[in-house]
């Protein structure tokens, strides 16, 4: 928790790079990086390599990934400028510049880490036949978009919101409608000043990656629109047949949000307060006012869908800027930085997905480790004329079967609820899970809790998941009225993010069994794709260790480091 520059200096990079046997030097992530690089150069199959960086939140995965990228940007620097064009930044700079952008939009201050990544990422550094960096690509996983509209106590929204409110110039404040000192409900703890609040770094990086000032302006204006959207609060109408009411102050926020998002105020309000129902043989259209809770859900949903699309688009733009044609590179080194195992007092679909990914990676590690152990044993047996049969041990396979197995698993049951479009009752769903999966030894339940739940015994410990809202989260529905207003916005950026041709509605009614697209089905398939890539490479592992849960500089607490459940923060363990 304190930068020690000599530990990651260019001189040290060089020392590991030129050493005859880097593994004989002091243990360092550069030793792993150099070994990985030499493996590529040796051309021994598999040529492609991956480094899997793991550890609990705040342990240093993102920091380590950044250092590894700097290492390769230095030792594998490209020899020529891009396409002979001096105006375009060199590939190494562009790759490194992707970090501040991804962190500004995808990281946030949490209880465990001031700069916590709220998404997973796999970066491929592509090398040409001379083993120089010639291209790169980034794949992201499951952004925690709920954070846009909900921040847990003492946590913050994504850094970018604080950057724009703190760093905008007087002129920009006027254009983005962000007066100094204004209060935003979705911007808690803004009095805390973090080094991650620096707007200039993000802007420069965006510019270097080809996002010009006018597009940047557009992005920040839309983000300001979201902050105003968050201040809209509804109250119950006197008459239930009428739409929810707005206080005078809220009316101003609707107007500003509408102006910033370039959506007519009346249309914006209607999409938030009125549901359109089509029914009957004649497909008659009815309009029904939403309850106050529904209005709140719609407001939050609008913000989440805009932010998630914006993040997706940024990743696309970054990839366009750093990727070159596959014919120009011959091998790659992949860096995987995914969020570690999570166990909070309350866990839901997000934690289920994250912990499932960690189960998969743990299994990958164990399989690789056992294979690596058995090869020398096999050779030894062979030298003595004995036969050795390989053990294909699947670590905690029953846990993975429980989560994703076929035909019955928690994922398949969740998807079934979505497919049948059942307005799920968590108690009934709990019964369904228990009936279908009670044979699995990794499944249990907290019988003392009044809330419907299930417990999974993960490799790293037991985690209790709450069933309330889990099916809804898996459906992740976007009301069609919201898609409609976004598609009709006059804003250039929103028009790009929500083109009219695209159907954003996750309409489960019209989807057949095979095609049901849910959060878990999308996550599972992107993870399977990642595992396929990892399995085709030679893996290397870096395990980051958090020296103390309070993120204090120069403090090493042995008892916390060796604790079997390092993923609990102190307050959470005492709550438990
Ligand atoms: N090698 C290091 N030297 C000095 N400080 C470090 C080092 N590694 C990490 N840190 C400090 O720890 C903080 C947390 O690190 P980082 O954000 O990389 O954690 P993480 O494992 O990626 O967490 P999360 O899973 O929450 O994203 C950094 O912001 C930095 O302050």
Automatic annotation (TrEMBL):
GO BP annotations listed = actin filament organization
Q: Where is the Myosin motor domain?
A: 1-576
Q: Which organism is it from?
A: Phasianus colchicus
Q: Please verify whether the record's keywords include Nucleotide-binding.
A: yes
Report the Pfam families cross-referenced here.
Myosin_head
Entry-linked Gene3D superfamilies: 1.10.10.820, 1.20.58.530, Kinesin motor domain, Myosin VI head, motor domain, U50 subdomain
In terms of InterPro entries, this protein maps to:
Kinesin_motor_dom_sf, Myosin_head_motor_dom-like, P-loop_NTPase
Q: What family does this belong to? A: Belongs to the TRAFAC class myosin-kinesin ATPase superfamily. Myosin family.
Biological function = Actin-based motor molecule with ATPase activity that localizes to the mitochondrion outer membrane. Motor protein that moves towards the plus-end of actin filaments. Required for mitochondrial inheritance during mitosis. May be involved in mitochondrial transport or positioning.
Q: What is this protein called?
A: Unconventional myosin-XIX
Answer whether the UniProt record assigns the keyword ATP-binding to this protein: yes
The GO terms describing molecular function are: actin filament binding; ATP binding; microfilament motor activity
User: Which keywords does UniProt give here?
Assistant: Actin-binding, ATP-binding, Motor protein, Myosin, Nucleotide-binding, Repeat
- Which cellular component terms (GO) are annotated to the entry? cytoplasm; membrane; myosin complex
Q: Where ATP is bound, by residue?
A: 55-62
